[in-house]
Amino acid sequence: MSIREITLESLDAGQFIETQVAAIRETVGGETAINALSGGVDSSVVTMLGHKALGSRLKSYFIENGLMREGEPEQIVGWFEALGVKVDVVDARDKFFAALQGITDPEEKREQGITQVFYKDVFANLVRNSGARVLLQGTNYTDVEETAAGVKRQHNVFEQIGIDPQEAFGYKVLEPILQLRKPAVRAVGRALGLPADITERPPFPGPALAARVIGEVTPERIAVVRRATAIVEDALNGCGAFQYLAVLHEDRVTGLRDGKRDFGAQIEVRCWESTDAVTAAPTELPFATLRSIADRIVTEVPGVVSVTYNIATKPPSCIEAV
Ligand code: XMP
């Protein structure tokens, strides 16, 4: 991999911001640029760098793909409004669910269900309608490393695997935080004045809850994993872990509810200790915490009769299940 990593130890956040702001100005020139803000720390940092560099010549969008967590669009738009950045919500739910229909293979899900819809359809339309030539996005060093190593095709990696976005989608992609891993991205976010709600947010994958549904992604199955995710996040917020999540399994298991057989769904809970997502170990959560998460999930999420906790490490596990 030819990209030079800037480690947290060697990072001078102020200098990095200056360099990237200048680079964005130079690449975009007198034109406009767009960026897609998911509200994760990576895209939030890129939004602020772009905003600093271009002001109102940067158009920021939150793509409502139907795969985000409870209340997320409103929350993210509100956070950025408070920072003086206007974010428009683009409703693309039907496009994503149509593309994801019938797909069960994880890599096909990422490629056909997420990447192609984001880049070929939604962003291409936004670029066309806004007159922009450049898309700013928050690909980081770990995304590229895992994709180049063939571990997992991250949805936002192109040039490093031989895809020219200009040729494939008709616009240039600029990636200001390509040299940073997550801890360094957080440090830049703090230096940019982003609130801790954003800089200390656990990572969330680009394919969103689609990365947490094993088997076909439908609005109904997303609703199940979304509710389970809200419960897990509510229980584990502030626990200090690197990332915590819920996964909806494809297999059903026999359960018993109200004295009757209930052939129901299974949710797997994961909670990870990690610094950079390259390796990770399950958090040794108190059993009482796990039990209370399980009680809430089987009570509050319709159709779920079984809850498990992942106790394997990465590798060979991965942080996400898809
Ligand atoms: P894995 O599952 O590979 O995840 O152990 C490593 C880190 O990357 C996030 N992740 C993704 N992020 N697009 C992203 O932007 C993706 O396709 C993707 N898959 C995983 C994951 O949440 C974890 O923090």
Explain how this protein is built.
There is one protein chain. This protein is of the alpha/beta class. Helix content is 41%, strand content 18%. It has two domains: 13-199, 3-Layer(aba) Sandwich (Rossmann fold), CATH 3.40.50; 213-309, GMP Synthetase, Chain A, domain 3, CATH 3.30.300. The protein binds xanthosine-5'-monophosphate (XMP). Xanthosine-5'-monophosphate is lined by residues 110, 143, 146, 152, 154-156, 203, 205-207, 211, 243, 277, 314, 318-320.
Task: Name the descriptors.
alpha/beta; 5-stranded parallel beta sheet; 41% helix; 4-stranded mixed beta sheet; 322 residues; binds xanthosine-5'-monophosphate; single chain; 18% strand; Rossmann fold; GMP Synthetase, Chain A, domain 3
Could you give me the name of the CATH homologous superfamily of the largest domain?
A: HUPs
Strand content: 15-25%
CATH topology of the largest domain: Rossmann fold
- Helix coverage percent of residues? 40-55%
Q: Would you report the number of β strands?
A: 9
Q: Which sheet architecture does the biggest sheet show?
A: 5 strands, parallel
First and last CA, distance: 25 Å
Would you identify the regions where 5 or more consecutive residues have pLDDT less than 50?
A: none
Q: What is the count of DSSP helices, taking H or I runs of 4+ residues?
A: 11
Radius of gyration: 20 Å
Overall residue-averaged pLDDT value: 94
Kindly give the count of domains.
Answer: 2
Give the ordered list of helices and strands: HEHEHEHHEHHEHHHEEEHE
The set of bound ligands, ions and cofactors reads: xanthosine-5'-monophosphate
The secondary structure category is alpha/beta
The dominant shape is: globular
What is the spatial order of strands in the main beta sheet?
3-2-1-4-5
Q: What is the highest CATH level, the class of the largest domain?
A: Alpha Beta
Reported CATH architecture of the largest domain:
3-Layer(aba) Sandwich
